[in-house]
## 1
Amino acid sequence: MTSTSSSTTSTTQRVRPRGERSRAASAGLHTALIVASAVALFPVLFVVFVSLRGRDGWQEPTRLVGFSLDNYTHVLGETKFLTWFGNSVVVALGATVLGVLVAASAGYAVSRMRFPGHRPLMWTFLVVQMFPMAVLIVPLYNLLGQLELLDSYAGLIVTYCSISVPFCAWMLKGYFDTIPAEIDEAGRVDGLTPFGTFWRLIVPLARPGLAVTAFYSFITAWGEVAFASQFMSSEEHYTLAVGLQTFVGQQKAEWGLMTAAAVLITVPAGVVFFLAQRHLVAGLTSGGTKG
């Protein structure tokens, strides 16, 4: 009897709970994650490393001596980097604010209201997303030229909104669908107008979706090159992505300056991502029906 009980206990101890990985599987998983992280981080770390090697340090990137901040001081003090940075901030913030407002209004209207053409409107947004950016350069250039918006912040902001709004409207429409319609009815009972209901009740609950769409709009405008290089003709109006091209000419390429400027450009994008992630997590944990 004692032998049978001991055998049963030993068998029970050897049985692994469901969902628990073996040591070999855990080691393999962690190894794969470490390798994937190293592959993803290597290009970024290499750019940072080259930017700290001086003007000609990129020619011998394997040497571990000669580190300095010469590239950064040259970019910040002897180029128009700060002007390009200011232009990018104006354009990116303008495209983010305008794009999110338009996309949120369109997504909420399609989610809550039934008006003639509301379904074709969303399909039109989807079809617009299928066109490559290169195909849109010529018609947008002609349109901005007729409106006298070439080489202006307003023209570039409207152009970037034409890229981000269709995707953001689709995303926000799906998020608004998850918010109970009873909240709208409660707002109308309290005497709020449709816009008041949207602004005071729905927008706070839609913070996660708004954070994601704002981040997408900002990144679209912050790192875009094709439209900015074609629509902005004066160097005083260059954005950062276009200004970087001045470091690479036909006769000589200043890769040290290029890498230093690239590192500086990633800082605002990282800050915006951190802020969007924080609001996203906060919005999700608060719940969509919290009163």
Note: Residues 110 and 118 are 6 Å apart (CA to CA).
## 2
Amino acid sequence: MPSPEDTPAVPRILARTDQLAATAGEGETGAIWKLQEGHRDLDSNIIALAPEGTIDAHTGPDLDVLIHVLAGSGQLATDLDTLELTPGALVWLPRRSRRQFTAGPDGLRYLTVHQRRQSLVLDAPPPRTTP
């Protein structure tokens, strides 16, 4: 019997963003959908912010992120400018760029896509030897 690693991945519909976007502003916040497939090179999430909600200013990860605004509105503050976010906006966030998200009165929902970060694997320390 083949292991899951040996089974080829096949294209499939994972979610309906129109349905996820339709519930914008209904109280869900944070990552409301995540790409769960085991063997993949990408990560993707749908992030929801409540009306007038924010993600505080921070430096992004050490990888590029692409976001696609699905519903609602808001602003993305960067070091140089403030970008208006409306449905359909496709925004590139360069690696380690500063960003702050603020949702508008109807909340904000956006899809993120980026390279999958490798999991940190910690090895057990070597056994202690006594002299």
Note: The longest helix spans residues 17-22.
## 3
Amino acid sequence: MKINILTTIAAAAMLFASCQSKSQTEASNSTDSTDKTSQEIKTESGKIDVSKIKVADAKTILARKQVPILCYHQVRNWKPTDGKVGKDYIVEIQNFKDQMKMLADSGYHTILPDQLYAYLNTGAALPSKPIMLTFDDTDMDQFTIVRPTLDKLGYKAVYFIMTVSIGRKGKFVDYMTSEQIKQLSDEGNVIGSHTYDHKNFKKYAGKDWEEQLDKPTKRLEEITGKKMTEFAYPFGLWNAEGIPELKKRGFRMAYQLSTKRDEKDPLFTIRRIIASGYWSPKTLSNSIKNSF
């Protein structure tokens, strides 16, 4: 793999502006409803024991009200070299802090995948105004800027790691080290897989499953000491043919962007929206309400 792959990846991500399409809202029940089975998923310590959860049928999952999930990439100030499309994926530092303050002031509580999984399958109760924060691509600013900002608010997040970039210093951006990724995990955040080098999931064949799923999963599990259960599709692109490959590797949920969820496998097509660098906190608030 050539070193300049990171530049190629960055360019590909910026060119894929269509993933910023308007979200399709879907109908539902309230997030505070509970099924009888929800009482069975707590351990003595109060933590969720996902091993006891039976996957619900697709109709039941699709009927539940969607939890807002935000997708961020870079959090840094814009540079003169940043293009118009690229700025969609770059939220400036003060704007990001203001967005997080807006969420806190509005009463949002961050949740993590265990809680989402329990809710979607059993109707387990969630905090009032639940929201999930996700960060893609392993950028260093997610550790230096995002982490302390969220810590001050008592927020936790999911970090989807692209393993080709771990510890690298790129032309446009630096990337987190293994030690920093482990620290995020140890502090109660969730680490998920985002492939080796961001190759389009819809094009996987042959050895791609090993290179893009198996090897990155093994490395992340070695770093964190925890099993990888969450996967984010590069560019948000997915196909139904690839979902069985995720299932047999032990993934329990996979995250796309704003397109409609699959009617057969909604747990593997969970929706997120990209938090645009052009959005003010008010615009973000409106987008959350309109998209979910």
Note: The CA atoms of residues 6 and 257 lie 22 Å apart.
## 4
Amino acid sequence: MIRGWQVATSALAIVVMVATLGAEANAAQCGNGPGGFEAWKQQFSGEASAKGIGATAIAALMQTHYASATIAADRGQRSFGLSLEQFMAKRGSATIVARGRSLKQSQAALFASIQQRYGVPPGPLIAIWGMESGFGSQRGNQNMLSSIATLAYDCRRPEFFTDQLYAALKLVDRGTLSGSTRGSMHGEIGQTQFMPKNVLAYGTGNLDVAANALSSTANFLRAHGWRAGAGYQPGEPNFAAIEAWNAAGVYQKAIAIIGRQIDGQ
């Protein structure tokens, strides 16, 4: 015999299932080419509005274009497959070390202030700065919002970049970024190439200003377990914070090595 509460429970389960399927059907659908991008933007803008994204950011989203160059770059990240020696040569590690040592001296007061506040020494910060943007000389010239919207639409990693897109739209709403902000191929911005979610969480000002970008990077590392005075080579306590910055093993090891050479260890 089916009791009344069982019927009610079954009926409720059906309602929830139908509602879930309906939500999935109405959700913006990913794609693998430019053909569906405009329709996706229309759908996504409705979802974003419902989640509290304001008119300024929605208008900026609707002005985005499908970034073919971003898709090409996303499919062609071959340098992370190199050996450590090849990777460091390709990224110009010797140049980063030489310039980094000079900057450590000329900007000693800035780095001392950052280390006092966050516990992060100059070496790894300078290594990241040099690796990410050539000390600010290569910050990218792609439309940031178009790059991230394209990757949120693309079926390869939509969940990750959808989160980044919502963060970018919040930053546009706040006036921190705009629809014309320029960045690198995946939407990274500033002197140390922050993604929007990290700007929201760890940003300490305009990241096109080196002091702000370096402070923000130190803030990120501290938030990911950096301990003042501990080592940051593989196997040492602070290496995990470097791993949190970038998932590629060769990148992580290169930062540790370059940082050690800059710090004179």
Note: The chain has two domains: 36-76+141-183, 84-140+188-263.
